[in-house]
Amino acid sequence: MLEKPKRKKLYVFTCLLVAALLAACGGSPAVEAERESPNGEPPQPADESSLQSELPVSEPADLIMAEEMVYPGARFLIEVPGFGGPMTPWRFYAVPNISTDEAANFYLEKLPHFIVENDEIINGHRHIMLTYSDVLNRMDDADGYDGMVAAAKELDGALIGLEVIRSGAVTGFNRLGILMESYQDGNIMNASGEPVEIPMDTTIIILEHYSNTF
Q: What is the pTM of this model?
């Protein structure tokens, strides 16, 4: 395998050699265009340029902060460590007087770039789970410790997951069920040791976000 500087020199040498051979055979439009080029640089091979122009161009979506996605009128209940521990906590909110279907449609419209992991009806109520892995991917792509520290600071508070579910309709795999099972006696406590009551027959929204632990 050639090193990058050597490959570059070989590429330039090959282009110049081809240009010289074409000129010796009477010239060509490509060579004439090269002669008229103001910078005098050889053009890129046509096939490589065509491939590059056909490649899709995608820019990463802007980060969405969890605090920006709190549903209007929602009441904060509790925050607990998520599957990633303190780095990916879950925030639980209760939203009275709206259906899970209304909340689900609200977030699907607000977060079109999020992946829909689950969208189903449970006991007559809609249950959705959305994720956005780009946030954690940016941490994985960070260069060294200093790069991770800088990335963690930038990503602090960024939304990486969201769930809408109806309390009282909890079944199967969901964050609300995990929260309730974590307190087998039913006495859910917040970080300050105060009891937290999960209201029944109410739309519950869970926001999962990245938390800077550095």
A: 0.69
